[in-house]
Amino acid sequence: MAAKTQGLDAAGQVISLRQGADALSAALPALMLQAEQIANTLSHGEHGRRRSGIGESFWQFRHYNPGDAANKIDWRQSAKSQSHFVRENEWQGAQSVWLWCDRSPSMDYCSAFAAQSKQQRALVLSLALASLLMRGGERIGLLQPGGAPPSSGRAAFSRLAENMVLTPAGENDLPPLLGLPRFARLVLVGDFLAPLEETGVLVRSYAAKGVQGHLLQVLDPAEEDLPFAGKVRFEGMQGEGNLTVGRVEGLRGAYHRRIQQHQDELRALCRGAGWSFANHRTDRPPHLALLALHQLLSGSARMGR
Question: Are the C-beta atoms of residues 77 and 61 closer than 8 Å to each other?
Fold first, then answer.
């Protein structure tokens, strides 16, 4: 009987995972569209590197100036007119932007006070950021074992979206610790409700490798406000078990202080590592969170602010 029960449980889990994957697959076009629309509202010119420098991609021709090396003259372009032209390439730094979006079961939570689950909002924000950065020529990659190298362009964005949304969700609240190039930039989007010690090991390990990071905590409003009253039964979404509380409103003050303490500790952890931290609620417009992230990656906001 035990073996049969385990088999039924396993089969049920497979069916549940398949249904979840089908639902996300069906939602992919809508998620991509929403991400693009959000990115469009913030796309005021190109972001990032549009200036001459060391790189392989052609940027522009300009007139030859006294002092320019003769080997920089593009003789083919110059032959078309009476002037000499210098070929300039676009500056390309060694940095790439790596994204990780929390796909653990706790991200599926959506209370009656929000229109989207944490998972949907995190995916939309991650894709919108990727779209915005790729428009500026940035190379984006997913932080996952065996993942493709960072790339840019419309085709790359579509592949990234498919991989991000359709990759089977795991049980891990935190991303893996992988080898990234020094000075790479890493954006982590999740609820970060894991024990602070675990998050601390991850952040400090990446920071020690010279990786610049940004943590964006996405929470449901009910997780911050605890707006319930009376007797409430809380169900764990990752095997934590269930808890029934009578007169839950009596815990609201202590709960608020604990959530605020956790966020303050995350912020201090990131500041100590030279990273940045921000939090976002799913009942608020996503544009604000995207703008803050974009400003941080553009270098127009201070780290750890």
Answer: yes
Amino acid letter, residue 12: G
Closest CA to 129 of 204, 185, 89, 205: 185
Q: How many residues are present in the chain?
A: 305
| CA pair distance 142, 100, nearest whole angstrom | 6
Question: Rounded to whole angstroms, how far apart are CA atoms 46 and 132?
Answer: 9
User: Given this model, what pLDDT does residue 9 score?
Assistant: 52
Looking at the chain, the number of H-run helices and the number of E-run strands are 8, 9
User: What pLDDT was estimated at residue 268?
Assistant: 97
Q: What is the mean pLDDT of each run of 10 residues along the chain (305 residues)?
A: 37 49 52 65 47 47 71 77 70 70 91 92 89 83 87 86 80 88 90 95 95 95 91 77 82 92 97 94 89 72 38
> What whole-number distance in Å separates Cα of residue 159 and Cα of residue 120?
18
**Could you give all domains of the chain from N- to C-terminal order, each with its CATH number?**
58-89 (no CATH), 94-298 (3.40.50)
- Is residue 213 a contact partner of residue 270, using CB atoms and an 8 Å limit? yes
CA atoms of 275 and 266, how far apart (whole Å): 10
Q: Which residues, other chains included, contact 13 with Cβ-Cβ below 8 Å and sequence gap of 6+?
A: none
Q: Is this model's pTM higher than 0.90 or not?
A: no
Hey, what's the torsion of the CAs at 283, 174, 298, 45, to 10 degrees? -60
Burial class (CB in 10 A: 0-12, 13-18, 19+), 131: buried
CA angle 166, 177, 297 (to 5 degrees): 75
